[in-house]
Structures are given as C-alpha cells and as structure tokens.
C-alpha cells in the first residue's frame, strides 16, 4: 500500500517515519495482520501488509490512515501546519496492489530501497 500526504506536502522526517511505523504496526496487530515492511519519504509511505481475506482492505486502510493521522497530530505539534481541511494529514486516495505472484524478497527490497529524508 502507498499513502500520500495531502497535496503531497513534504511533512515527514526520520523521527516522524519511525513513530509512524510503530503506530501502523500496532494498528495492523489490532486487525490480526502483519506489517511485513515499512518505509517512506517526506511525502508518502510504503507498507507491505500480509492479511487474510476476512480483513476488508478499505477498513484496514481507513484505520491505518485515521489512527496514524490522529496520533501524529497529538504527538508532534510541529505537524499541525500540514493538516488541511478537517485536520487531514493524508490524501483521500491510496494505492493498494496485490503481490501474490511476485517473490516477497523483490517487493521487500523495493520498499527497503525507498529513500528516507535526511
């Protein structure tokens, strides 16, 4: 999955991304799913999530984006200026793709190689 910030604004530093990963891992655990890989840049994040068919993708995405937005706003007051209209950090859209046919090692390598901001 890929989530982008509202208006693709450059929002995240390494400390933000580290905390974002912790938050998203906790949300995945609540859904009984596994966050296999996480990485991001200053305006988007990549997640490789392993989840069973009983989990509705839209509900998982909604929770990941909603919980992370709320907690990041609470924990990092410096991010408040990046929240637009109704306190939204994330764009309303997202990308989700299935990697059932691709070797997991290839997908993991792609996500690991995404550049994090300095």
TrEMBL record:
Transmembrane segments: none annotated. One of its GO terms (molecular function) is DNA binding. GO terms for biological process: DNA transposition. Residues 2-114 form the Transposase IS200-like domain. Signal peptide: none annotated. It holds the Pfam family Y1_Tnp. Coiled coil: none annotated. It comes from the Bacteria. This is IS200/IS605 family transposase. It comes from Catellatospora methionotrophica.
């Amino acid at each position: 999955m890929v989530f982008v910030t509202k208006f693709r604004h450059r929002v995240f530093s390494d400390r933000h991304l580290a905390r974002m990963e912790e938050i998203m891992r906790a949300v995945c655990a609540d859904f009984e799913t596994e966050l296999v890989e996480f990485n991001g840049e200053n305006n988007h994040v990549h997640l490789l999530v392993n989840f069973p068919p009983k989990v509705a993708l839209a509900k998982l995405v909604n929770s990941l984006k909603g919980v992370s937005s709320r907690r990041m706003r609470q924990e990092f007051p410096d991010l408040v200026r990046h929240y637009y209209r109704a306190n939204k950090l994330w764009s309303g859209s997202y990308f989700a793709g299935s990697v059932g046919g691709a070797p997991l090692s290839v997908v993991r390598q792609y996500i690991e190689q995404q550049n994090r901001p300095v």
